[in-house]
Design a protein that fits this description.
By secondary structure, the protein is an alpha/beta fold. The chain has helices at 16-19, 23-37, 51-54, 63-72, 85-95, 98-103, 128-138, 157-165, 176-186, 196-205, 228-233, 251-260, 274-279, 286-295, 308-317, 341-352, 364-379; strands spanning 41-46, 59-61, 78-82, 110-112, 147-152, 169-171, 189-193, 213-216, 236-239, 265-268, 282-283, 301-305, 322-325. It has three domains: 3-119 and 336-362, Rossmann fold (3-Layer(aba) Sandwich); 123-239, Rossmann fold (3-Layer(aba) Sandwich); 246-325, 3-Layer(aba) Sandwich (Rossmann fold), CATH 3.40.50. Helix 2 (23-37) packs parallel to helix 16 (341-352), helix 4 (63-72) packs parallel to helix 5 and helix 8 (157-165) crosses helix 17 (364-379). It is globular and about 60 Å long. Bound molecules: 1,3-dihydroxyacetonephosphate and iron/sulfur cluster.
Length: 381
């Protein structure tokens, strides 16, 4: 018997045909969806996105700003998140929190990530099972009632929920110091994951000596490579995770730029190793990096240590300043780069056709507890 096609579950539009379209066609089609959906669609873009994508974003920002935008979105019913997976999860949790659902009579905001392969290698360095095991192991040597878990926003929703359940919070690169202060008002020590560099750089800048920090390597059997005394002495226990992009910046790059360009300012993201941040003039989130450049007098010389697309955009947008990329090798976030015009157009047209693809929806229980930690993050400044 022949199969009768119905409209109940129309097949999704295929991605491969979009890959063959030229940029102009893709841009026109994306704009057409935007026009049709008007305020029901919000395209959010992280600063590391490629130019052709960021130019189509309604709003752009760093992780903290994008969370605020998702949280404040009242009109939209769809968020197309041009960033990475943990950011889209965060947007889903915040845009669909109970008070917002009640305002919309239960209607959800659909969050789509144009390419599901847009993950974050740092976020993948801490899995919930590992963090739960570490917490149990730590309980053998320190009092976990006095231990506050802080997760960097670059982590899975399950880790945020872990923090929400245990008096902890989420932080971003723009409020990490405030988050650590907040934690020390509530406990004696902090377990900070997954980025050891942001944790170390922030704690050090707050005056916590390196002897009062230790690194927990989840792949070492015995207390993450520490003695009980190491852990008892530590106020900050750092997870052994890092960003593969930012670890490429080295102290010798700073020295080379200072030698070649006297007076140059070194501006870096706090995911860079401590040896680089210590030498830099300024460190901060992608939002702060942009503000520093925008507010500097013409003729300022900069060497910037963060993802290549953002640095190249700053160069284009600020020809009145002299901007260099801090590393001699290309440091770009390959997963952010997965989001391109074909994927954006494909995911938006599928949405329009009633065959949504790449929908990010955090399960209810995880979202409930992750929201607790995210609301703390939004309050801590
Ligand atoms: P920001 O919060 O500074 O935008 O950083 C996000 C990120 O992933 C940096 O690698
Ligand atoms: Fe993750 Fe690093 Fe990419 Fe940021 S730059 S999204 S931390 S891999």
């Amino acid at each position: 018997m022949a199969t009768v096609a119905t409209n109940a579950n129309p097949p999704a539009l295929e991605l491969h045909s979009y890959k063959e379209m030229d940029h102009e066609t893709l841009q026109q089609r994306i704009r057409a969806v935007r026009e049709q959906m008007a305020e029901r669609l919000l395209i959010l873009g992280h600063h590391y996105q490629q130019d052709e994508v960021i130019s189509l974003a309604d709003l752009r920002g760093d992780s903290y700003q994008l969370s605020q935008m998702a949280s404040a979105s009242r009109e939209c019913r769809v968020i197309a998140f041009c960033g990475v997976h943990f950011m889209a999860e965060t947007a889903d949790i915040l845009a669909n929190r109970p008070e917002c659902l009640a305002e919309r009579d239960g209607e959800r905001v659909t969050v789509i990530l144009p390419d599901m392969a847009a993950g974050c290698s740092m976020a993948d360095m801490a899995a919930i099972e590992q963090v739960e095991d570490v917490w149990d192991d730590l309980g053998e040597v320190v009092d976990t009632d006095n231990l506050i878990p802080i997760t960097y926003i670059n982590s899975a929703a399950s880790l945020k929920a872990f923090c929400g359940k245990r008096q902890g919070a989420v932080c971003t690169s723009s409020n990490a110091a405030a988050a650590l202060e907040w934690a020390f008002e509530r406990g004696q020590r902090v377990l900070f994951f997954p980025d050891q560099h942001l944790g170390r750089n922030t704690a050090k800048a707050m005056g916590i000596p390196l002897e009062e920090m230790c690194v927990w390597d989840p792949y070492q059997d015995e207390l993450g490579g520490n003695t009980p005394e190491d852990l008892q002495r530590s106020r900050v226990i750092l997870w052994k995770g890092h960003c593969s992009v930012h670890q490429m910046f080295r102290p010798e790059h700073v020295d080379q730029f200072r030698e070649r360009f006297p007076g140059i300012k070194i501006l870096v993201h706090p995911e860079c190793p401590m040896e680089v941040v210590d030498l830099a003039d300024i460190s901060g989130s992608t939002g702060k990096i942009i503000r520093e450049v925008e507010n500097a007098p013409p003729g300022t010389k900069w060497a910037i240590g963060t993802e290549l697309h953002l640095v190249n955009r700053l160069k284009q947008e600020h020809p009145e300043q002299e901007i260099h990329f801090l590393s001699p090798v290309i440091c770009m976030c390959a997963t952010m780069y997965r989001i391109d015009l074909p994927h954006l157009c494909w995911s938006l047209e599928n949405l329009q056709a009633g065959t949504p693809v790449n929908v990010i929806e955090v399960d209810e229980e995880t979202a409930r507890w992750a929201l607790v930690a995210l609301e703390r993050m939004l309050e801590i400044r």
